[in-house]
Amino acid sequence: METLLLQNTEKDIARAGEILRGGGLVAIPTETVYGLAANALDGAAVAGIFRAKGRPQDNPLIVHISHLDQWKSLVREIPDKAMALAEAYWPGPLTIILPKSDIIPEAVSAGLDTVAVRFPSMRTTRKIIDAAGVPLAAPSANLSGSPSPTCARHTMDDMNGRIDAVLDGGECNFGVESTVVTLATDIPRLLRPGAVTPEELREVLGKVEIDDAVMGQLKEGVKAASPGMKYKHYSPKAEITIVKGSLDDFIKYTETLCRAGDNKKRFALCFDGEEESISLPCVTYGREKDSLTQSHRLFTALRELDERGAEKVCARCPSTEGVGMAVYNRLLRAAGFCVIDSHDAS
Ligand code: TXA
Ligand code: MG
User: Fold this and answer.
1) CB of 255 within 8 A of CB of 279?
2) Is 186 helix (H, G, I), strand (E, B) or coil?
């Protein structure tokens, strides 16, 4: 299949809408990451998403809307807390899970009785949803397991030949996926951290629990509340180790590795301004205290490591405060949960 590269023009947005209405697949920009969209109410179109990504069938999709009114028909009811949350953070990088209505196809909810809904803030995304005239199911537009794409080129790298079109809307603003919170439990629960922080959720909801899968690895046999969190994820081909501790400890640790003399292509994933003092080739992902820039650049940095042929990567550990929790959560999965404390190691 030839994959069209569409531009951010009225004409091409209309074309994307037509393809989506006709049951096709279009990768679209959002303020978080690029999404691989299909008509959310058409089970056959949605099945195409799973095929194109190689996505496990038990991993449900987020439904994207362009007007608050569209939410009503997708869920059983909208409790006051959910509406308050939507009023505070929609449109924006927040996904809200509620019990689903009967119009949601099995393929979207992957057998669960809930549905995840997001009202994106990027104007182009909303225009595409309007042009399609239906809500759009859209997971991140990467091949299953790879880092999510944050620009049209990365999306094409993964999806060329597999889908009808990619619409180029430039670089994504946040660069990591939306915050996912479920209100289908007695106490609201954060399933995936994103740009809307736990503190911001608590301002509206009061108590919010943080799912065990957010900061660590689920134990064998525990059922994942958010199926996506159990898979190895966001991974470049290189093997990543997150190295906790100060820059000095990190430098000592990498120097010990170099002296040990293994001949793997070893890189450092570090903060801006640290390249001079680290004796490995470096890829940077923002300043140490700047979680927003780190979220914007992390997935691009992971793809760059692949492009440069990295085999082993020592990564500086980000702060887990505020948006940093989302950065750490993605890097932890990219590293297959491999974290060491450089102070203990050196
Ligand atoms: O920012 C985003 O959310 C992007 C853009 C395209 O909107 N989308 C995205 O979709 O990240 P995806 O499919 O890559 O991640 C959706 C996550 C998965 O971890 C999935 O398991 C979880 O949300 N999820 C979806 N529906 C759910 C449900 N009903 N219950 C629990 N988890 C759900
Ligand atoms: Mg994804």
Assistant:
1) yes
2) coil
DSSP H/E element including 202: helix 198-205
Helix, strand, coil shares of the chain, percent, nearest 5, are 35, 20, 45
Q: Model's pTM, two decimal places? A: 0.95
Q: Whose CA is nearest to atom 17 of ligand 1?
A: 228
Ligand 1 pocket test, pick from 25, 65, 177 with the greatest ligand atom count within 8 Å of Cβ, gives 177
Q: How far is the CA of 148 from the centre of ligand 2 (A)?
A: 6
Start-end ranges of CATH 3.40.50.11030 in the chain?
A: 239-345
Looking from the CA of residue 226, the nearest atom of ligand 1 is: 32
Hey, which of 64, 118, 119, 226 would you mutate to test ligand 1's pocket, going by the most ligand atoms within 8 Å of its Cβ?
A: 226
Distance CA 258, CA 155 (A): 35
Q: What's the CATH number of domain 4-214, 3.30.70.100, 3.40.50.920, 3.30.870.10, 3.90.870.10?
A: 3.90.870.10
Which listed ligand is nearest to 234 at the C-alpha? 2
Which of 3.40.50.300, 3.10.450.350, 3.40.50.11030, 3.90.10.10 would CATH assign to domain 239-345? 3.40.50.11030
What was the pLDDT predicted at 63?
Answer: 98
In this predicted structure, what is the pLDDT of residue 69? 97
Q: Which helix (H) or strand (E) holds 295?
A: helix 291-307
Residue 111, SS3 per DSSP:
coil
pLDDT of residue 223: 77
Q: What is the mean pLDDT of each run of 10 residues along the chain (346 residues)?
A: 97 98 98 98 98 94 98 98 98 98 97 97 98 98 94 98 98 97 97 97 98 84 75 77 96 85 84 96 97 97 94 96 96 93 71
> Which residues neighbour ligand 2 (ion) by CB within 5 Å?
140
All CATH 3.90.870.10 domain ranges in the chain, comma separated: 4-214
d(CA 346, CA 343): 6
